[in-house]
């Protein structure tokens, strides 16, 4: 058979075949040489964060909340998968606590807007201002709740919004 014709027939067959390999697969089989042996080790950097007590408590709280349903069972199957929404939010919140207020702004459907804001150096100030507004709203709600119950609560005063010059400093410091 002509090799060109044979290749066309084999291409049709290969469409229905899948060979899955991992870094620990061995070719030839049982040779002792793994596929991953030829791939250089990835470089990594470990960042150690020293939280103040209040931040550490917040981080633990969000970790407990978000990690509860980090894995989910797919409906009508036995497959267990990552809950990517929870994983994404957990990753964001543990990298900057105030992402809890703005994690929905950094989703794929908003990426072009966020990139444009990065280009114009308005993203960080926007995230910080949104965080401050929501934090202050939460504090006011708590104050009102306890006040209505006749309970005196020790709730911090509202945070001040950064000025435009502070926003530029924030943007510069976040970029490194």
Low-confidence stretches: none
C-alpha termini separation: 64 Å
> For the residues shown, what is the average pLDDT?
80
Order of helices and strands: HHEEHHHHH
Strand order of the largest sheet: 1-2
> How large, in whole angstroms, is the Cα Rg?
26 Å
Approximately how much helix is present in the residues? 40-55%
Largest sheet: 2 strands, antiparallel
**Total E-strand runs:** 2
Structural category is mainly alpha
Apparent shape: elongated
Query: How many domain modules?
Result: 2
Quaternary structure of the protein: single chain
Tally of helical segments: 7
Beta-strand fraction estimate: under 5%
Protein described:
With 176 residues, this protein is mainly alpha-helical. The protein folds into two domains: 49-97, no CATH class; 101-176, no CATH class. It is built from seven helices and two strands; from the N terminus they run ααββααααα. The protein has helices at residues 3-14, 53-67, 84-95, 99-102, 111-119, 123-148, 164-175, and strands spanning 71-73, 80-82. Strands 1-2 form a two-stranded antiparallel sheet. A hairpin with a 6-residue loop joins strand 1 and strand 2. Helix 2 (53-67) packs antiparallel against helix 3 (84-95). The longest helix has 26 residues, at 123-148. The protein is elongated. Residues 156-176 are annotated as: Disordered. Residues 164-176 have a biased composition (Polar residues).
């Amino acid at each position: 058979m002509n090799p060109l014709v044979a290749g066309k027939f084999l291409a049709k067959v290969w469409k229905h075949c899948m060979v899955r390999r991992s870094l620990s697969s061995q070719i030839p089989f049982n040779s002792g040489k793994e596929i991953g042996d030829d791939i250089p080790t990835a470089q990594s950097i470990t960042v150690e964060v020293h939280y103040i007590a209040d931040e550490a408590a917040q981080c633990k709280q969000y970790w407990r909340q978000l990690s509860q349903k980090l894995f989910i069972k797919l409906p009508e199957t036995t497959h267990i998968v990552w809950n990517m929404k929870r994983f994404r939010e957990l990753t964001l919140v543990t990298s900057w606590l105030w992402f809890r207020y703005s994690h929905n702004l950094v989703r794929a459907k908003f990426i072009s807007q966020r990139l444009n804001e990065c280009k114009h150096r308005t993203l960080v100030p926007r995230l910080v201002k949104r965080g401050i507004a929501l934090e202050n709203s939460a504090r006011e709600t708590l104050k009102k709740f306890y006040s209505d119950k006749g309970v005196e609560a020790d709730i911090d005063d509202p945070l001040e919004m950064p000025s435009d010059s502070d926003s530029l400093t924030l943007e510069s410091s976040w970029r490194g």
